[in-house]
Design goal:
Blueprint: E1 2-5, H1 32-36, E2 53-57, H2 62-67, H3 69-78, E3 83-88, E4 104-107, H4 116-129, E5 136-139, H5 142-150, E6 157-159, H6 166-169, H7 174-177, H8 181-188, H9 210-222, E7 231-235, H10 249-263, E8 266-269, H11 276-283, E9 291-292, H12 299-308, E10 311-315, H13 318-326, E11 330-334, H14 339-342, E12 352-357, H15 383-386, H16 390-404
Parallel strand pairs: 2-3, 2-5, 3-4, 5-6, 7-8, 7-10, 8-9, 10-11, 11-12
Antiparallel strand pairs: 1-12
Length: 412
């Protein structure tokens, strides 16, 4: 059995405080490392300067990186004059391209030729040489904390807020499981920044250029798709959790065929190079035809294509959150992953539906609140995804399309 949920209009921040703690002298409290080395305090107090150079280590999947952008924006608002450097990998660097909150990106491993381990060591040495430059370090994932540790960046560091000893014993706290990933990132920097001024401060930031939008529109024209055509963007891939978050191509095709028949819609199959085989299998099952664009566009042009669509349907993966960032209504299909922690977040009025199963074992994949990472998840049955039928997704899509004309335009 499956169910779907609509928008979460209220967000409860009472589980934790974004406010700074004030000591009796009127100074903002700082981590122990900063107290032990007063010359490197990172807060404004009695003439002590605020950070001039902030380093954020963000070695995460593309979708998680996008969900971290509200935290980057909060740091920029708090420290408008500081440089903000972000450590990224080649795979997630593109999602931050053009982001005005980011001053510089550092690639790990180091770009160029040579074995990955050698290039990783090169990057560590380069970061280590700059360790005295950074007044404040923020690590937003376990891999990020490892990199900052190896690089010798230990002073004034704020790490992802996580259950104690989670890497050894795990952490099944209901508090962590109930908190969205965006709020987990914001919690990490809660001692530094003010609370979100509104729900819109929690919306992921994706900055598309005029050239990227024009490239998407040109591509649609080349495929004979007029701006007035009802477009449904679908992402049938996603390689997170070893590919176990993917709904079956046959079921995507069934939904596509039903939407084509009922609404005279046209389906765009989008995604990256790794998604091409699944997209091709899905396209072969759509007799009225679909436009296969998976692997054909850069990351942000893909986002621009989603922005041109009337509706997005996809697995729990980066394009689902890209749809929310550009304001395209979305249906998210959630199997093993926790919809409480990963559901799409858009601007006020954003329309989305989350479709998930009600199996007792689901969800089993979380941002925080999992078993220890050394304990393997051996379930490959995909029972949670098989419990979601094409009719469940079609019902959610139909409701969003029915609301489309009456809803305010919240696109960016």
């Amino acid at each position: 059995m499956a169910s779907w949920r609509g928008d979460d209009t209220g967000h409860n921040f009472s589980a934790f405080s974004f406010g700074n703690t004030i000591d009796r002298a009127g100074a903002v409290a700082v981590p122990r490392s900063a107290r032990e080395n007063p010359s490197r305090r990172v807060v404004r107090h009695l003439g002590i300067p605020e950070p001039r150079h902030i380093l954020v280590s963000l070695l995460s999947p593309i979708g998680d990186t996008l969900l971290a952008t509200p935290a980057l924006s909060a740091l920029r608002r708090r420290y408008p004059d500081a440089s903000l450097t972000v450590i990224v990998s080649a795979s997630n660097a593109g999602i931050l391209e053009g982001n005005p909150d980011v001053t510089e990106r550092i690639l790990v491993p180091h770009p160029g030729k040579g074995a990955p381990l050698f290039r990783f060591a090169q990057a560590m040495r380069a970061i280590n040489r700059m360790r005295d430059k950074y007044d404040l370090v923020v690590s937003l994932s376990a891999a990020s904390s490892f990199v900052t540790f190896v690089s010798g960046l230990s002073a004034n560091q704020y790490k992802l807020h996580s259950p104690p000893m989670w890497w050894a014993v795990g952490g099944h706290s209901a508090e962590y499981r109930a908190r969205h990933t965006i709020d987990q990132y914001l919690l990490t920097i809660a001692p530094l920044v003010s609370p979100p001024r509104s729900d819109d401060d929690r919306v992921p930031r994706l900055y598309l250029t005029l050239q990227e939008r024009s490239a998407a529109r040109r591509l649609l024209r080349e495929h004979g798709l007029a701006p007035t055509k009802l477009l449904i963007a679908m992402h049938v891939g996603g390689d997170g959790f070893n590919g176990r978050k993917r709904w079956a191509p046959k079921r995507f095709a069934d939904v596509a065929n039903a939407l084509i028949e009922r609404f005279d819609a046209h389906v765009l199959l989008i995604g990256g190079n790794v998604d091409v085989p699944l997209a091709e299998r899905t396209a072969a099952l759509i007799p009225h035809g679909a436009t296969l664009l998976a692997g054909a566009t850069p990351l942000k042009v893909t986002a621009a294509l989603i922005g041109e669509a009337t509706l997005f349907i996809g697995n729990d993966s980066a394009p689902l959150h890209m749809a929310a960032a550009v304001g395209t209504p979305s249906v998210g299909i959630f199997g093993p992953s926790d919809w409480n922690e990963f559901h799409p977040v858009g601007k006020t009025g954003y329309q989305h539906r989350v479709v998930h199963s009600n199996l007792a074992c689901s969800p089993c994949f979380r941002f925080l609140g999992n078993d220890a990472p050394w304990i393997p998840n051996t379930c490959y049955s995909r029972a949670c995804l098989k419990a979601i039928t094409p009719q469940h997704v079609m019902d959610a899509a139909t409701e969003l399309l029915a609301q489309h004309d009456a809803s305010p335009d919240v696109r960016v």
